[in-house]
Fold this sequence. Notes:
Elements (H helix, E strand, L loop, with lengths): L31 E7 L14 H14 L18 E10 L7 E12 L3 E10 L5 E11 L12 H8 L6
Antiparallel strand pairs: 1-3, 2-5, 3-4, 4-5
Amino acid sequence: MSESPAESPAESPAESxxxxxxxxxxxxxFEATELVDIHFEDLDANGVLHNSRYLTLFxxxxxxxxxxxxxxxxxxxxxxxxxxxxxxxxAITYHWPVMEVGKVAVRFWLDRMGRTSYTYGFExxxxxxxxxxxxxTRTQVNLDPATFAPKPFNERSLAAFSRLVRDx
Length: 168
């Protein structure tokens, strides 16, 4: 855990409503930020956000980002061709506890985009971005729904992901 909650302020969040990379300022192009609610039941007996909830907050942020952009877990309802993606690995580091209900900012991007998998980077910050509570990575693999073998991403999916990919 960090010695102080004072961290460098987060960069301004990218506009979630922007549809094309050309509409997003260059400095914000490769990330997204969603505000996510923390509820009383997310806190442990000490009044601290339970460690398992950080990944749930990240999951909620991903849903808030991708559902309005046409992705749905049900292939019949999804505008995206690749809908079966599973988590292969997760790593998280906790920096400063969340000690109250309210909103946090979950910032995320793609560190790596491969042929059949990708790796998100993410941060959980205070709603104003000034306190880094946790950061981590999550790798997901795209699977063929018939065989459950890794499957290359469709061009449309690659185009949708490209807005979040950071330059190498």
